[in-house]
Write a structure and sequence with these properties.
Layout lengths: L6 E2 L4 H7 L3 H17 L12 H18 L15 H20 L5 H13 L8 E2 L1 H16 L8 H23 L2 E2 L14 H10 L13 H7 L4 H12 L4 H4 L1 H6 L5 H15 L4 H4 L3 E2 L15 H4 L2 E3 L2 E3 L15 H8 L5 E3 L2 E3 L6
Parallel strand pairs: 2-3
Antiparallel strand pairs: 1-4, 5-6, 7-8
Helix pairs in contact: 2-7, 2-8, 3-4, 3-7, 4-5, 5-6, 8-10, 8-13, 9-10
Length: 363
Amino acid sequence: MASDKPSARILTQDDLNVFNESETYHVLLQFILDLREAATGRPNSFECVESETAKSILSLLDEVQHLTARHPALLNEKSRFGNAAFRDFYDDLESQLPSILRKHFPDVQGDKLIELQTYFVESFGNKTRIDYGSGHELNFICFLLCLSRLNALENTDYPAVVLHVFNRYIALMRVIQSLYWLEPAGSHGVWGLDDYHFLPFLFGAAQLSTHKYLRPRSIHDPDVLEAYSKDYMYLAAIAFINSVKTASLRWSSPMLDDISGVKSWEKVSEGMVKMYKAEVLGKVPIMQHFLFGKILPIGELPSEKQTAEEKNLTQHEGHLHAEGEWGDCCGIKVPSAIAASELSHTGELRSIRGNSIRPIPFD
């Protein structure tokens, strides 16, 4: 079933159950746990050795950010949904990526290079829907995992991978989300943890788990956020949410508000792992888009043994759904809170192409 290019294979809960017992699942989960361990007790400024591979990934991310300058957002005064210029950026990235990857990873060739390219480009969002969510974030982890399985990354690289490389990726994604007003992938993020990301909270809680003074309730202290958000992913994520949402965390991200009542960061860290397994790796609407190739393989899945009539599949926006598995990605479109924030700016009227508009905050 494997092809040169990784492809989505999970269609049903039975498929997901098989995946959750597979070697790829356990390798993926262990990789995330290893990165979490590498982040434990260490701020982003922790001095760690950057291998040549880590430096190459950082340079690669810099090149991606340079591409955004070539594709400025289109004027779009009537919509807070995704900006169509994102598609031009995505096409440019996809076309240039093979040569860029060959430059940074000359030893990776053939099918393996195609797989790296696929996971990397898919980690920046969906071109058709102009959205982004935890499934796209997971593709970046898969890109890193593939490099690890190809022995381009060693265990000793993991502190730099999580504190420098992953953190740089998140910073880049916030630039892209802000520039192109990417919509949340699915309709539930706005009511829960975060519109776009999960792993900054998982890794970030581990960073804070040994801190002598900061506690989960500290996320409500503006002075703490200002002083420490550069050093801790969790606090940076909270600061970013506060910068684009007009309401308090109680209304914009009630789960984060609830978590702030937990006594210790260690408990938060443990809870984040359980939540990630259940709400990301354990959800068909997210994992139906997970890509399998030769580096991250899967055997034959239950739905692949069925006839077309038995599958009862529905085609939607370039992917399939089995009966009863209609995904969040196909739900009601959620406008970008970033877009609303850009339009609000202290409640003043702004002029776009000479037309005055009244900002309408969205939470």
